[in-house]
């Protein structure tokens, strides 16, 4: 129309190319200015559990490294789905992170018919923090002296013993289901909202045993609980004289270890993921972090986001088979 300026085809192409280049540069620009406000870490389990301890262990030095506050917030429930959903639906800008056991990604999709988000599509791995073992502990009154006697007692008393876990599908739950499957035994499952309340009832004698993720170890040293075996492929340096379940009972290949780490919403700029991974791995390389993780019976497990994702895929295959066999369902 006369009087209305129009763009030539060349000009339109030039403008479109400029717009696309600008859009592609936005994540880079955001990453370069990152961070310029406080970060929030959502923990999928209650205070006092392994995930909470690890999150707070990393938060303080990460705050120093980034020059911004790092606030830890507990959002427990539904095997980690509640906290995971919050992070999955948060802005993908690196300011909201998730601390969880790897079960959120490798286990929950197998035990929940419907989840409010897809952990493999809506979350992206940031940094692994620790490989955490589980420890077979029993109340002192239980008349067993070692893991072999425990299995025999379990076989002789089907359904009479109870065990506590942080919830359906948690690594302690899967460890016990693995033990029950491999020994053809039965015990009553008592799920809790976290490892800490399960430990409290074990100490009170309300349940008989548990595969504990490490927070019970001070009570083992104080003789308030009996430690019978380690649910890992190798012995713990904290208790070198305590055998693995494999060694103690002949259950070959018993491995119930899990990896805890940080995740971010999918779509978080790669440069931000790299920055967080680098800083967290530096923290894990410090002696204080190694000692703190070792006190939980675990070991620091620094790795790239890609290696962390690959580990979750492997665990998904391994635990998925057990879950289908045992018919495990989410809370």
Strand content: 15-25%
**Element string (H = helix, E = strand):** HEHEHEHHHEEHEHEHEHEHEHHEH
Please compute the radius of gyration using only Cα atoms.
Answer: 23 Å
Terminal residue distance: 66 Å
Number of helices: 14
Q: What is the level 1 CATH name of the largest domain?
A: Alpha Beta
From the 3D coordinates, which CATH architecture of the largest domain would you assign? 3-Layer(aba) Sandwich
Largest sheet data: 6 strands, mixed
Low confidence ranges: 20-29
Range of helix content:
40-55%
Described by the principal axes of the CA atoms, the overall outline is globular
Strand order of the largest sheet: 2-1-3-10-4-11
Q: Kindly name the structural category.
A: alpha/beta
Mean pLDDT: 90
CATH topology assignment of the largest domain: D-Maltodextrin-Binding Protein, domain 2
Number of domains: 2
Oligomer: single chain
**What name goes with the CATH superfamily of the largest domain?**
Bordetella uptake gene, domain 1
Explain this structure to me?
This protein has 331 residues and is an alpha/beta fold. It folds into two domains: 37-131 and 259-326, Bordetella uptake gene, domain 1 (D-Maltodextrin-Binding Protein, domain 2), CATH 3.40.190; 135-249, Periplasmic binding protein-like II (D-Maltodextrin-Binding Protein, domain 2, 3-Layer(aba) Sandwich), CATH 3.40.190. Helices cover 45% and strands 18% of the residues. It contains 14 helices and eleven strands. The chain has helices spanning 9-32, 50-66, 81-88, 103-106, 108-111, 119-122, 147-156, 171-183, 195-203, 217-221, 245-249, 270-284, 287-295, 305-326, and strands spanning 39-43, 70-74, 96-101, 123-132, 135-138, 162-165, 188-191, 209-212, 226-230, 258-265, 298-300. Strands 2-1-3-10-4-11 form a six-stranded mixed sheet, with helices on both faces. A three-stranded antiparallel sheet has the order 8-5-9. Strands 6-7 form a two-stranded parallel sheet. Strand 1 (39-43), helix 2 (50-66) and strand 2 (70-74) form a beta-alpha-beta unit. Helix 2 crosses helix 12 and helix 8 crosses helix 14. It is globular, with a radius of gyration of 23 Å. It starts with 8 loop residues before the first helix and ends in a 5-residue tail after the last helix. Residues 20-29 have low confidence and may be disordered.
């Amino acid at each position: 129309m006369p009087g209305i300026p129009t763009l030539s085809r060349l000009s339109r192409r030039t403008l479109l190319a400029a717009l696309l280049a600008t859009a592609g540069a936005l994540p880079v620009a955001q990453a370069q200015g990152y961070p310029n406000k406080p970060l929030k870490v959502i923990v999928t389990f209650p205070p006092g559990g392994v995930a909470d301890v690890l999150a707070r262990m990393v938060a303080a030095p990460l705050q120093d490294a980034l020059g911004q506050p790092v606030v830890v917030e507990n959002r427990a429930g539904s095997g980690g789905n509640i906290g995971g959903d919050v992070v999955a639906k948060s802005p993908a800008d690196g300011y909201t992170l998730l601390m969880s056991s790897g079960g959120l990604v490798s286990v929950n999709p197998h035990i929940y018919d419907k989840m409010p988000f897809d952990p493999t599509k809506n979350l992206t791995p940031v940094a692994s923090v620790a490989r955490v073992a589980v420890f077979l502990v029993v109340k002192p009154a239980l008349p067993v002296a070692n893991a072999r006697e425990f299995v025999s007692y379990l076989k002789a008393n089907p359904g009479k013993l109870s065990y506590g876990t942080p919830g359906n599908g948690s690594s302690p739950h899967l460890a016990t289901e693995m033990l029950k499957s491999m020994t053809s035994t039965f015990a009553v499952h008592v799920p809790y909202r976290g490892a800490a309340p399960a430990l409290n009832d074990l100490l009170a004698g309300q349940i008989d045993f548990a595969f504990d993720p490490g927070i019970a170890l001070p009570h083992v040293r104080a003789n308030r609980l009996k430690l019978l075996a380690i649910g890992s492929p190798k012995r713990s340096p904290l208790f070198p004289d305590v055998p693995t379940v494999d060694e103690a009972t002949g259950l070959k290949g018993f491995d119930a270890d899990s990896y805890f780490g940080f995740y971010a919403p999918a779509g978080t700029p790669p440069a931000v993921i790299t920055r967080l991974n680098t800083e967290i791995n530096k923290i894990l390389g410090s002696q204080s972090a190694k000692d703190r993780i070792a006190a939980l019976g675990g070991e620091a497990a620094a790795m790239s986001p890609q290696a962390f994702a690959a580990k979750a895929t492997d665990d998904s295959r391994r635990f998925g088979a057990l879950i289908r066999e045992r018919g495990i369902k989410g809370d």
